[in-house]
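User: Quick sanity check before I run a bigger batch. Here is a single chain. Can you write out its predicted 3D structure?
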Amino acid sequence: MDSQHQTLEALQDIKRIMERSSRFISLSGLSGLSAGICALIGVYFASAWLKEYSSGELGLETLKYHLLFLALAVLFLALVTAFYFTWRKATKNNLPVWDRSSRVLMINLLIPLVTGAIFVFALYLKSEWRLVAPACLIFYGLALVNASKYTLGDIRYIGILDILLGLSGMFFSNEGLLLWAIGFGVLHIVYGLIMWWKYDWKQGKENA
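Assistant: Done. Predicted structure follows.
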């Protein structure tokens, strides 16, 4: 029994080493949770400004600048909090934050994201408002699916859901803000809580 137990532990150690060398496993569930909260805060302000625009209290150009600034602010806060929680988890587990696996992950994440950002910016310049939210969801979902091969595979599912929400938004364009709130807010919070329980809290209890 002892030899079988030692063999099983050795195999588990080999599996963990292989995962660490090929996948970036330091993503924290709290990163998704914080990103979702930031997105919902952004939706709250965007909804208020759109109501002011509809009532004539806010001009089109002012609305465009407000939304652009809001999008950049939400993105910045989401990235900062995501990096902090990921760095904290990696430090706790004595893992590097920036290595070959994280670089490969970043490259595969950025290719669809940068492409989508350019596409969405073109829509923004042409005032194609109804397509902005669906396009964001579609390209973000594609980025998550593409990156899921190099990190926790669970993000593939949120990517697929975001793609489906984005495609729905192409046909129900008046619901763009609602779909944005679901895709970037609610899904991130639910995903973050599940990932925190599955990979952070549960593993922490096992290693204690």
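The chain has a mean pLDDT of 81.

User: Great, the batch can go ahead then.
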